UniProtKB/TrEMBL annotation:
Keywords: ATP-binding, Nucleotide-binding, Transport
Protein name as annotated: ABC transporter
Record organism: Nonomuraea jiangxiensis
Keyword Nucleotide-binding listed: yes
Highest taxon, organism lineage: Bacteria
InterPro entries per the UniProt record, alphabetical: AAA+_ATPase, ABC_transporter-like_ATP-bd, ABC_Transporter_VariousFunc, P-loop_NTPase
Molecular function via GO: ATP binding; ATP hydrolysis activity
Residue ranges constituting the ABC transporter domain according to the UniProt record: 1-216
């Protein structure tokens, strides 16, 4: 996927919000997007998702299936959570939402009308609808905001799995929630310009949670599993902060 000389303004004669964005995204990329409030992160994510069109410039090579979890999930719809997810499943050609509801610990929310959800719970519904279609491009706008601890912990593994399956993941995030993942790219929007920085060091909080970097004795274990499960397994382990690599293929 490629962004070439992308600019964007909301209305004619208003200033450009995105003044220049050039970038390439490859399958398996995980990108953390930062910038001060109002810098244009959500705007850039909506452009990437195809929900807004560049004023000038082009975005090409977008994967056919896009999952977009907005920062504010629109709750003003007359559905319960289950009815909404079933509806989205039909729109997505019968995608399975139930495993995501379980993984995001949404069991207690299923009969609740969307309009009565708390902010964090509504956010989970937004994540479930973004994930259910097995997206080739997963876009998460402030995904950690308002989430409970269990879901915060599981989200990096989910992002790593999508990337290991060849998807692109991009998340605006001030909290460094994805920084424990290997090879996270870091983008920022500064004065309307998209800049790419080098990999960011894990924050102290993330480093504390990563067992592999703790100054304690380490142990290496062997795990044998079907070849086809290797990449998701490695991604899950790395997502949880462990060092994990393939040693040999047998049989
Ligand atoms: N629908 C809109 N119409 C006009 N201007 C808008 C619209 N949405 C956002 N803007 C403006 O575009 C600029 C960038 O907003 P955007 O929401 O993309 O920033 P952000 O970096 O995501 O901010 P935050 O960190 O606060 O979420 C802001 O000046 C905002 O006021």
């Amino acid at each position: 996927m490629r962004l070439s000389k992308v600019t964007f303004r909301y209305r004619r004669r208003e200033p450009l919000i995105i003044r220049s964005a050039d970038a390439r995204l490859s399958p398996g990329d995980v990108i953390e997007l930062t910038g001060v409030n109002g810098a244009g992160k959500s705007t850039l994510l909506r452009l990437l998702a195809g929900l807004a069109r560049p004023t000038t410039g082009t975005i090409s090579g977008r994967p056919p299936v896009v999952g977009f979890a907005p920062d504010r999930f629109p709750v003003g719809q007359p559905f319960t959570v289950t009815a909404y997810l079933r509806h989205m499943s039909r729109v997505r050609g019968g995608a399975r939402w139930e495993p995501w509801a379980e993984r995001l610990t949404m069991g207690h929310l299923l009969t609740v009308p969307l309009g009565e959800l708390s902010k964090g719970s509504a956010h989970k519904v937004g994540l479930a609808q973004a994930l259910m279609a097995d997206p080739g491009l997963l876009i998460l706008d402030e995904p950690f905001a308002g989430l409970d601890a269990d879901t915060r912990e599981v989200l990096p593994s989910i992002a790593a799995e999508v990337a290991a399956g060849g998807g692109i993941v991009i998340a605006s995030d001030h909290q460094g929630g994805l920084r424990a993942l290997p090879a996270v790219r870091h983008w920022s929007v500064v004065d309307g310009h998209l800049k790419e920085g080098t990999a960011v060091e894990p924050t102290a909080e993330v480093a504390d949670r990563a067992p592999a970097v703790a100054a304690v004795p380490q142990v290496t274990v062997a795990v044998t599993l079907p070849v086809g499960e290797l990449q998701p397994f490695l991604a899950r382990m790395r997502g949880e902060g462990y060092q994990a690599r393939e040693i040999e293929e047998t049989g």
